[in-house]
Automatic annotation (TrEMBL):
The gene is mdh. GO terms for molecular function: L-malate dehydrogenase (NAD+) activity. The active site is at H187 (proton acceptor). NAD(+) binds at G11, A12, A13, G14, Q15, I16, G17, N105, Q112, V129, G130, N131. This is Malate dehydrogenase.
Length: 327
């Protein structure tokens, strides 16, 4: 019998949805030997558009695609799923405070957390992409006591991929030469893209790039503000690269990590590196294909410690702002 996986995707008619569904259905997320069932969740108003996306999926005649369910009912969407990719979220509108954004999304992610708890397999894994993704993941995790906390993830891979390319270009290297870039903390402008512990062709980044002021300044700023730069250039937020990062994240979690390597994803803190337990914090992670672990023993200089303290503070404040909604 062939393996199969049932995947829920929320916000499936959105921009990221349009880029990711075809890659999942073609086997790029779960591999060429795993058949795929797609459970697509959208707001009622977007169901006609979602129907069009489904028609296009049909028209690809993907060999691995077994079924497509479209619905606006979260209980249907999360029924018996192995994976849930939470992409749909309430977008930030002009003049909206961060607190309003957190509360709007808390409404969505408490409901979806509950629906996952009640309907998904209890081995289900959940990757949150919709922003603010770390805290949305914190909310969903809090509402799903039947699912282990370690099955919840928030996406920092797009930041990692952005950082890798910036470093490669600066060093006149190829992006495959760059390893072990970790995005510590929040997927936000407080994230810390750790170049000190990353390597280019096996050597510390600071050996290939001697301009440490660039690394501490423009490099970090470019990665932190890349999302805004894309919006400015494209008139729309990054979608294909975000979908690509979600494919990379799941792929990294379901395949063994090569010896000596690690990748970035936000997971439920167990207190590692002094981060408060329970926060969804971006860490360096390794997987054996089934289980993952946080890489221990990475050292941080004073500069890094300050950056990590700042992103920890922001995530703690986000947690405190939504805590009263989690009953
Ligand atoms: P989009 O606006 O094109 O699509 C979002 C879709 O979600 C819409 O079709 C909407 O109808 C749907 N939706 C909204 N609320 C929903 C709900 N309660 N249930 C089901 N569907 C719902 O947005 P796009 O570009 O696809 O981005 C989606 C999210 O991903 C945004 O929050 C964005 O900020 C975030 N994002 C995260 C990144 C990361 O690195 N973590 C990178 C890029 C985007």
């Amino acid at each position: 019998s062939t393996k199969s996986v049932r995947v829920a995707i929320t916000g499936a008619a959105g921009q990221i949805g349009y880029a990711i569904l075809f890659r999942i259905a073609s086997g790029q997320m779960f591999g060429p030997d795993t058949a795929v069932h797609l459970n697509l969740l959208e707001l009622e108003v977007a169901l006609p558009a979602l129907e069009g996306v489904k028609m296009e999926l049909d028209d690809c005649a993907f060999p691995l695609l077994q079924s497509i369910t479209t619905t606006s009912d979260a209980n249907v969407a999360f029924k018996d799923v192995d994976w849930a990719l939470l992409i749909g979220a309430f977008p930030r509108k002009a003049g909206m405070e961060r607190k309003d954004l957190l509360e709007k999304n808390a409404g969505i992610f408490t409901g979806q957390g509950k629906a996952i708890n009640d309907n998904a397999k209890n081995t289900c894994k959940v990757l949150v992409v919709g922003n603010p993704c770390n805290t949305n993941a914190y909310i969903a995790k809090s509402m799903a006591p039947n699912i282990p906390a370690r099955n919840f993830f928030a996406m920092t891979m797009l930041d990692q991929n952005r950082a890798v390319t910036q470093l490669a270009q600066k060093a006149n290297a190829h992006n495959t030469d760059v390893s072990n870039v970790t995005i510590w903390g929040n997927h936000s402008s407080t994230q810390y893209p750790d170049f000190y512990n990353a390597t280019i062709s096996g050597k510390p980044v600071t050996e290939s790039i001697s301009d440490e002021e660039w690394l501490k300044g423009d490099f970090i700023k470019t990665v932190q503000q890349r999302g805004a730069a894309i919006i400015k250039a494209r008139g729309l937020s990054s979608a294909a690269s975000a979908a690509n990062a979600a494919v990379d994240t799941v792929r990294n979690l379901v395949t063994p990590t090569p010896e000596g390597k690690h990748f970035s994803v936000a997971v439920c803190s167990d207190g590692s590196y002094g981060i408060p337990e329970g926060l969804m914090f971006g860490y360096p992670v390794r997987s054996n294909g089934e289980e993952w672990e946080i890489v221990q023993g990475i050292s941080h200089n004073e500069f890094a410690q300050e950056k990590i303290a700042a992103t920890t503070k922001e995530l703690s404040e986000e947690r405190d702002a939504v805590q009263h909604l989690l009953t």
